[in-house]
Amino acid sequence: MDLVRDATVRIHRPGGGYATDGPGPSFLGSGFFVAPGWVLTCAHVAMQGEGREVSVWYRADPHDSGLTEVPGAVVAALPGTRPAGSHGWPAPDLALVQLRRPVEHPCVYVTERAEAMLRGRKVRVVGWARSPGGGLTTLSGDCEVKGTYGGWADADQQIRLAEDWLELGMSGGPVVDVTRGEVVGVIKSQLDGHQGGTAVGIERLRSLTVPGGPVETETDDTYQAVFHAHDRYHADRHNSPASTERTWADVQSELPGPLGRVLSPKRRIDLLGRLAEFPPPVSTRNLLRLLDGLPNVHARDLRPAPRGWRDGLGALCDTRVRDRDAALELILRYCMGVLAADRPYDVPSTRAATKSLWEWVKRIADEDLSRDFRQELVLHWHAVRQRRDQEHQRPPEPRNGPVRYGERAFVLLELEPRGWERDRYDWRVGVARRTGEVLPVAEDSQGTGLGALAERLAAPLAEAFRRCDEPDSPAMLQVAVVPALLGLDVDNWRTTPDGPPLGAQRPVAVRCSDPGQQPPGEELERVRRARWNGTRNAPMRAEVVDCEDGMGVRVPEVTTLHTLPHETVPVLCRYGDRPAPEATAGLVRILEGGFGVALWRRTGETGAVCTEFHRRAADAVAEARSADRLPQKIHELRQGVRAGRTETYWSDGVALYYDDPHHPLPGAGQLLEAP
């Protein structure tokens, strides 16, 4: 606890001067150093500063009670703003403050495991608060984890703490698992007039925004930069032969530790330091693929999903294996996966990091594991080296090639109307794989109002996107709705108040979730597959089906639609002009005609000249050429509208229908079936 208190800081408004020694208006709350130059605190503490600027007061010398001030800036906050009308800052309520100048300071050790604060676990809380004498002092107390507020997959999940008092000012301070000797959470709030309060798990930092563009340096991704620096800090102090200070690894080694612990604290800190020398995983999806390829590992069940190499190691902690040797083999296999993994960038130090990690793996295997396993590792190592040599000889591949979305995992959002509650919907979010499996991410069966869906779905969608996005290639969002909602403008939803619309961030398409509107039978399925294959294997062509010579007409009957060539993409010009039942009926006829892709305008002025729309829609379909490239084309047009490019304005309000028969929607209740 001495190590914890030394790293716990006070957060003040900037420029408070000597007055900050008292609990006056400049004092905002607590925080703690997680890496050199980085402080973790609550968003509701840090965002009270002026222009995201704060002052951090810390103890520079553990043997001196005096404090030193250093300016800091809020680099990231979750969420970035407090919603209008909200009395408090919603969870996860976390913020990272970066110091404005370099100073020497201690750092806490932060857990690498998800869901570290389990019910019934004893923890200790630390923070700054008012002292009986009228100044400010550090306080600590013992609490018990009682449960959570919020769903298991929600970003607003909070940990309920009971037993001791949490004083005003302790918000932002660390929550410590004293059994394992690591920081597992951040104090969020006290209970008015009662003992206990709430905290947020450290793992919620994994939901920090993923960079939209390519990650070319470590500093391009704040999450990776902070935790790489954290792990290198602790490894450097543990491995330094000149240092005489007592480290976290030293203290953790004296604790009884959990039964069946495979890596000692010193080995673990050493390994994490070596992993932190590597470029981060290319994406969460790539890291999940590596972990799910290991025996008995189910990383996809973790919420939030692992994001960095340290998170992957933490995912192995709770794996059920038969004995210690099997658990150690699992860790070494993971390390070999890191050595072989794709990299977002390469730097000269990566070769040294590769050699260092391999030497660690080989030494541990030689000391503890069988000859057959050691031989397997050596063969794997030779294959990795050969592949790396070939990569260095090849010229770099060009970026931003065409994306075929029929070959990619996608995010599936299902909206189900509550028949007894008008304009309220149950929803499910999952990640659909090429195999047809849909992995659940979150659900809500309590009913959400139509106007609140975008805000309520922001966190679950962000988690799902992170699980299948690739650099420069965001995953597609498919929204399954009943026919009456096919005009829902999901592509215009904003999941953050100041963020871009979803359609400018990634491809967004709708599909029909109500098969009762279509005649069942093998014939329709045969037609659907034939049309889909036609739009994939031959150049597509657009066909406006509800407008002739600038005048709106009725969408043809299904028998007439059947005569259109298989490579046809129906275009509805007058959808936005029609009353809702008539517009829906026209769309249903297109679906019953077996078409897997279609375009329509949700908006439009009655009597407006639409020749330009016809021309541009035909060009866009022809340029995409195939169905699985049309989502990217529409995405580019939506980006153009967002950027103010006049040549794309014709596409404003255009909806994309995209229903691949090779990836059918799951049946009722199937989406959230336990993995």
SSE topology:
Elements: H1 2-7, E1 8-12, E2 27-35, E3 38-41, H2 43-46, E4 53-58, E5 68-78, E6 94-99, E7 122-130, E8 136-149, E9 158-163, E10 174-177, E11 182-190, E12 197-201, H3 222-239, H4 248-253, H5 265-275, H6 284-292, H7 309-315, H8 324-340, H9 348-368, H10 371-393, E13 410-417, E14 424-432, E15 438-449, H11 453-468, E16 477-481, H12 502-505, E17 508-512, H13 522-537, E18 541-544, E19 547-548, E20 551-552, H14 558-561, E21 568-572, H15 580-592, E22 597-601, H16 611-624, H17 630-643, E23 654-658
Parallel strand pairs: 13-16, 16-17, 18-21, 21-22
Antiparallel strand pairs: 1-2, 1-4, 2-3, 3-6, 4-5, 5-6, 7-8, 7-10, 8-9, 9-12, 10-11, 11-12, 13-14, 14-15, 19-20, 22-23
Helix pairs in contact: 3-5, 8-9, 8-10, 9-10, 16-17
Q: What do you see in this structure?
A:
The chain is an alpha+beta fold. It has 17 helices and 23 strands. Helix 3 (222-239) packs across helix 5 (265-275). The protein is globular and about 85 Å long. It starts with a helix and ends in a 17-residue tail after the last strand. Mean pLDDT is 88; it is low at 668-675.
Key terms for this structure?
alpha+beta, six-stranded antiparallel beta barrel, 17 helices, 22% strand, disordered C terminus
The proportion of residues forming helix, as a percent range, comes to 25-40%
Number of strands: 23
Strand order of the largest sheet: 1-2-3-6-5-4
- Biggest pleated-sheet summary: 6 strands, antiparallel, barrel
CA radius of gyration is 28 Å
Structural class by secondary-structure content: alpha+beta
Shape designation: globular
Low-pLDDT residue intervals, each spanning 5 or more residues: 668-675
Q: Please give the alpha-carbon distance between the first and last residues.
A: 40 Å
Mean pLDDT: 88
Strand portion, in percent?
15-25%
